[in-house]
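yo, NADH-ubiquinone oxidoreductase chain 3 is done. seq:
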Amino acid sequence: MFLISSLILMIISIMMILMIIANYISMKTFKDREKSSPFECGFDPKNSARLPFSIHFFLIALIFLIFDVEITLIIPFIYSMKYSNIMIISIMFFMFMAILILGLYHEWKQGALNWSL
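structure:
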């Protein structure tokens, strides 16, 4: 019984010593606190949350998401050309690309891609 209690006491003391050493080594300064704060979409988390949101950032993010999803839809077209009628798949692919290009042209004409303030 004495052996078990001495082992438990030794384990607890080693654990406490390691925790104190780790806490002392990892002392954080004010600059480190600024580095580890969250950074979300250019907003400072220490300021007010009711700041006006940049519509340009939103439109560019939306266009990126649209084209990212469209790329995932284009890849099966390429793989299906091996197993299907190449003429039908090519027509579908070019129609799909035409819709994408027309959408990009529309966004460009609407001014969503202009970054002038």
